[in-house]
Amino acid sequence: MATLFYEKDADLSRLSGRKVAVIGYGSQGHAHALNMKDSGVDVIVGLYPDSPSWSKAETAGLTVRSVDEAAAEADVIMVVIPDTIQARVYKASIEPHLAPGKTLMFAHGFNIRYGQITPPPFVDVSMIAPKAPGHRVREVFKDGQGTPGLVAVHQDASGHAWQDAIAYGAAIGCARAGLLKTTFTEETETDLFGEQAVLCGGVSELVKAAFYTLVNAGYQPEVAYFECMHELKLIVDLFYRGGLSYMRYSVSDTAEHGDYHSGPKVVTDETRQAMKGILADIQSGAYAEEWIEENAKGRPWFDAVRAQERDQQIEQVGRQLRAMMPWLEPVVVE
User: Fold this and answer.
1) If you count DSSP H runs as helices and E runs as strands, how many of each does the chain have, helices first?
2) pLDDT over 70, % of the chain
């Protein structure tokens, strides 16, 4: 059985008299900082001097420092900047200020798991990874609830790293819903696999393949978009609330029959073997090496594919249709 921690297991006094620095003020960073502030924690935000987020954080009532200053002042340092720049920022502005008794925290285990960051042995290293986008973490917290999170300890130099991590999870609201005990390795590998096989890579390719199958067969692109992209949200919302069973309960018998009849034709043994290959590359570090090297080269392949994907017919049709549905609050990504 999984181990879960809740507010009753947390001692927020573990953070009393300690300053917490949140390095970054993006989706996760703003939620961590504001939720902790509302929980009575002494929190500061660490940003680079010209960051456009500097004024946003100050307007929200937070104290902002440079990353160097924040890391020097803080007892607990939470790193919530993008994976691809963490190692550089850590080496330049965080590592020089680490000392015995300090805690280094992450919201994702990538850089620890793949050895891009190797903290000194005298600091605690832990993780709180909310299982929701940062804006949702903040919204739910303000409503008096919380989003579930993962908690892990990579290094327990003090002997109380677990207690401190759980306290941090309570301060941002995750302990209200439950903190699931895991490891940096499990969090990183499952997170990458889920993104690649299902949540981003798998879904994107499935939607595109279905859309172009209909369009190439002569059906209107607008109708294909509605069937293969737009309505996906309706199904995912059912998954979210009640799993596969609730989705199947909610759709027509014809749709449920199509689920059982054709789903295995789409996701075949070949697909499962491909998923195993994806997982193997994540576990071995081959995927991480490839992504790190791509960033070191300046992202030529990544940027080219990003531009190509944004110019796809399905994206063009989607932008036109979403513009006709203002209640969706459509977003245009340039």
Assistant:
1) 17, 9
2) 100
Q: According to DSSP H, which parts of 172-297 are helical? A: 174-177, 184-194, 201-216, 221-225, 232-250, 253-266, 269-284, 286-296
d(CA 210, CA 212): 6
> How many Å apart are CA 285 and CA 281, to the nearest integer?
6
Half-sphere exposure of 309 (CA within 13 A, CB side): 12
Task: Identify any residues that bridge with 77 across adjacent strands, giving them in sequence order.
Answer: 21, 104
Please give the torsion angle defined by the CA atoms of residues 42, 85, 104 and 186, in that order, rounded to the nearest 10 degrees: 120
- Per-residue model confidence as pLDDT tens digits over 8-49: 999 999 999 999 999 999 999 999 999 999 999 999 999 999
Rounded CA separation 119/155 (Å): 9
Per-residue pLDDT at 168 exceeds 90: yes
| CA dist., res. 128 & res. 143, Å (int) | 21
Token pair belonging to 42: 């002494």
Which residue matches tokens 């160097």?
68
Task: Select which of 30, 32, 108, 154 is catalytic.
Answer: 108
Contacts of the segment 238-247: beta carbons below 8 A, 24+ positions apart: none
Q: Does residue 334 surpass a pLDDT of 90?
A: no
Whole-model pTM: value is 0.94
| Per-residue pLDDT, 1 | 82
Is 257 one of the annotated active-site residues of the chain?
A: no
The model's confidence at residue 173, banded by pLDDT at 50, 70 and 90, is: very high
Evaluate whether 232 touches 325 at the Cβ level (below 8 Å): no
The Cα-based distances of 133 to 26, 296, 321 in angstroms read 10, 27, 26
Distance, C-alpha 322 to centroid of its chain: 26
Q: How many Cβ atoms are within 10 Å of 39's Cβ, its own excluded?
A: 17
Q: Report which residue type is found at 76.
A: V
